[in-house]
Amino acid sequence: DDDDDDENKKSEVIRLEQDILSDMADNKQFYVYETKDFWRQIKTAGSAVPANALYLQKAAQSDLSAELATPSANIVPPVFIHPTAEVHPTAKLGPNVSIGPRVTIGAGARVKESIVLEDAEIKHDACVLYSIIGWGSRVGAWARVEGTPTPVGSHSTSIIKNGVKVQSLTILGKDCGV
C-alpha cells in the first residue's frame, strides 16, 4: 500500500523542462528570442549581486558611465550612488556596489560587492560584503554583514560543503536590523 502512495506522489510531480517545455517545443508553442545585447539570468535573490556587478561593469564601458560615481580613494569603480543617497566622505564603496534612493552610509563604513536598497542605513564603521541590504534595513555601528564571493562568470549563488548546499550571499529582507 505504501508503494502505491509513493507512485501516486511521483506522478503528481511536474518537471518544467521534461513535462512542459519539451511538449511546447514539439507543438511549436515555444520560441527562442536571441539577442546580442547584455543579458544575465536571475533565478534567485542572491544572483542579483553578480548580475549587478556585470551590469555596472558594462555601464562603465558605455555611455552610462556618467551615471556612475567618480573614482577616488574611497570609491573603487564601478559604483552607482543614487542622487538622494547620503554617503559620508570617509566611507569606502566598491567595487560593484549599487546604493539606492535615500540610503545613508556612515563614517568609516565599508561596502563591497553589494546592493543597498532604498531607505537602508549603514552606520559608522559597519562592513557589508557580498550582500543585499533590504529596503529600510539598518546595519548598526561596527556590525559586519558578509556573504561569500560569487565569481562574476558563475551561474551559481550557492556553495556545497559537507554535502549541504548553502546560499553564499547574505540577504537582509525589508526593515531588518543587524
What does this structure look like?
This protein is of the alpha/beta class and 178 residues long. It has 2 domains: 1-32, no CATH class; 46-172, no CATH class. The protein is 20% helix and 24% strand. It contains 3 helices and 15 strands. The strands form 4 sheets. A 5-stranded parallel β-sheet has the order 1-4-7-10-15, covered by helices on one side. The termini are far apart.
Any idea what the radius of gyration is?
21 Å
Query: Percent of residues in beta strands?
Result: 15-25%
Overall outline? globular
Kindly report how far apart the N and C termini lie. 51 Å
Q: Specify the number of helices.
A: 3
Helix and strand run: HHHEEEEEEEEEEEEEEE
Number of strands: 15
What structural class should be given to the helix and strand makeup?
Answer: alpha/beta
- Strand arrangement, major sheet: 1-4-7-10-15
Q: What is the average per-residue confidence, as pLDDT, rounded to a whole number?
A: 86
Low-confidence runs? none
Work out the count of structural domains: 2
Query: Main sheet?
Result: 5 strands, parallel
| Percentage of residues assigned to helices | 10-25%
InterPro entries: GMPPB_C, Mannose-1P_guanyltransferase, Trimer_LpxA-like_sf
EC number: 2.7.7.13
Domain Mannose-1-phosphate guanyltransferase C-terminal: 75-171
Protein name: mannose-1-phosphate guanylyltransferase
